[in-house]
Amino acid sequence: MSDQSNLPPLRHRCSFCGKPANQAQRLFSGHESFICDECVELCHDLLQSAPDQQIAGEIGDLPRPSDIKDFLDRYVIGQEEAKKTVAVAVYNHYKRINAQHQARTAGKLNKDSDDVELEKSNILMLGPTGTGKTLIARSLAKFLRVPFTIADATVLTEAGYVGEDVENILVRLFQAADFNPQATERGIIYIDELDKISRKEGNVSITRDVSGEGVQQGLLKILEGTVANIPPKGGRKHPEQSFVQINTTNILFICGGAFDGLEKIIARRVGKKTVGFDTEKIYINEKSPDILDRVAPSDLIEYGLIPELVGRIPITATLEELDEDALLSILTQPKNALTRQFARLMEMDGVKLTFEQDALKAAVKLAQERKTGARALRSIIERAMLDVMYEIPSSTDIDEVVVTASVFTDEDKPKLIKKSDKKAG
User: Fold this and answer.
1) Measured between alpha carbons, how far is residue 425 from residues 86, 392, 396, 417 in Å?
2) CA end-to-end span of the chain
3) How far apart are alpha carbons 177 and 56 in whole angstroms?
4) In terms of Cα–Cα distance, which of 340, 383, 331, 323 is closest to 358?
5) What is the β-pairing status of strands 415-418 and 398-403?
6) DSSP designation for 115
7) Which of 55-69, 194-208, 321-335 has the largest mean confidence?
8) What is the per-residue pLDDT for 283?
9) Alpha carbons 369 and 377: distance in angstroms, whole number
């Protein structure tokens, strides 16, 4: 570039802002174009503030499977086998991505390479509602510090129908990654309620299955790996808008569902079989606690998932229904335990919160009656604490709140212990 500030002002102007030469302090010339000093400074500022664009996928200090499970243990009670299965799968997934990155950096990644080609293994989590499927997926993304989004399979439709396109899942992950394509391509997407889009028997091709098999077909490409053109702000595509290209090859998809009735299909395939020695035989039927552990791809296909989709989710982790002890532990032990959360909220108002053990058992009994697992616990505690949390901020004489069993069994209010009563005692 050369300084063109001495050129006739009427003949030359900035090609970016249009400012004539006589209004600019300096005007630099390029090939058939000019740029003023103010636009140069603006471009410099933009370059300085732009986020770093790293090669997609590499995660430094990749945690070991045992480290991943240890972190999950802080948030998810029980489900030992499921956490171990997921930890190994996630470790292998990101180890594969790091290996690709290193090969690409070294210039060794090409189609003619003799190295073993590692394929992506997405995960399917099976288990009743409220057993921790979503929590496991969310905790994984938090630990690995990768973008994360949740999609409900029931609101997805085929392209061209009213509803949410399958590719809109990628839009939400792109937004969660602060609009960084490279970060998006190493994120995690959790697709919930996958069982709700199973192919229904008798659904013939006379009518289109908008929310069932059609959506499964739409999920195939992005699960396996494709370059999708997405509208960065979401919504329907139209020819006049700009698109962002997202390669889904390294995005980890975790799918979840309750799959009610799958036990009957598994039991029918297994038949009247027993496990163990003659002295201690265990009869296998649909009510066996470990029946979901015996799931096979053919069972999922019979349930209503298309074979191609089952093939793209090769890893299966089963979660068990939570018993009373597990629900009690969920209320007190995890880092995000409900009793800890509410105690912290009350502490911010200078009030101590105490849950009696019998009260916790009563809350767990209510949750078991609702048959929605740990998901019911929050609504039960919220309802019990509503009036107290409404009144406490307006009171200056409350020292402690005690939640007893009668709060849940007889819908009594928690006991309020005043500061003045303690002083008098």
Assistant:
1) 54, 22, 19, 12
2) 86
3) 12
4) 331
5) antiparallel
6) S
7) 321-335
8) 61
9) 11
